[in-house]
Amino acid sequence: MSISHRFRPIAVAAALLAGTNLAQAADYLITFGDSYSQTGFNVSAAKPSAANPIGNPPYPGWTTSGGPNWIGYLLEDYSASTLLSYNFAYGGATVNASLVKPYQPTVKSLIDQVKQFSDSIAPKPSYAPWNAENSLFAIWMGVNDVGNSFWLENVTELHGKIMQDYFEEVEVLYQAGARNFAFLNVPPINKSPMMLAQPEESRELEATVIAKFNQLLVDHANAFASSHQGVKIVVVDTQAPFDAAIADPAKYGSKDATCFNSDGKTCLWFNDYHPGTAIHGLVAEAVARTWNGSIFREIN
């Protein structure tokens, strides 16, 4: 995992020498999620460019990792050429705020985020001429949907409704022209420092609910793929990257698997619920490796 935070200028220079508009030559990473994905992007402000692929604020953005999050690492370490990020993720988000309330009513749910997309770059404006071939739509949702509901008696029914709403939003993206999708599943948040302070019974229950939620995601993704022409869909397992770091924290610069530090580097965790940069780097690698196609470079 590179820590240089330098972006590749070669494709940009080639485009400029050829007299090609950079936006036309770029690929697009269009993302939705919660605090695990947020960078503080405002679609009405400075647009993504070669100088700052996340657009605004300055790279790596307002993250909860202490540095780049998985989106930043995808842009920096795994992009095959010029990759521009339009990231609608919002900290605290759930899929549908009327089903699982976020910590504040101002939090933008997945439904709200997709509406932002629809109201901004869905029409493929001149500053973001994405198309079905040069764009990847990635969604990492569920951490708050599970974390705020796993103990409820009706959790199975609730998560069924959540997943239905999730894929109604995917349908909106499809109708706008999206064809490439990466859905990231729920990581083992039951192993976060915050949850390790809870009784073992609670952690085991949450792990069980996470597994069921993740299976729902796979089932709905398969159903969507079979009923929609021209799509490529992958479900990215985020459990494995988290577990790899937790199993060998010293390899990633941490004294143990439970410490947290806001520098994002000397511990696996940024705080008691958000992973630091090492785990985000592993998640980015998992996304690029699972996608295994254009937009990201080949991984040996």
Automatic annotation (TrEMBL):
Keywords: Hydrolase, Signal. GO terms for molecular function: hydrolase activity, acting on ester bonds. CDD domains: fatty_acyltransferase_like. Pfam families: Lipase_GDSL. InterPro entries: GDSL, GDSL_Est/Lipase, SGNH_hydro_sf. Residues 1-25 form the signal peptide. Gene3D superfamilies: SGNH hydrolase. The keyword Thylakoid does not apply. This is Carbohydrate esterase family 16 protein. It comes from Westerdykella ornata. The lineage of its organism: Eukaryota, Fungi, Dikarya, Ascomycota, Pezizomycotina.
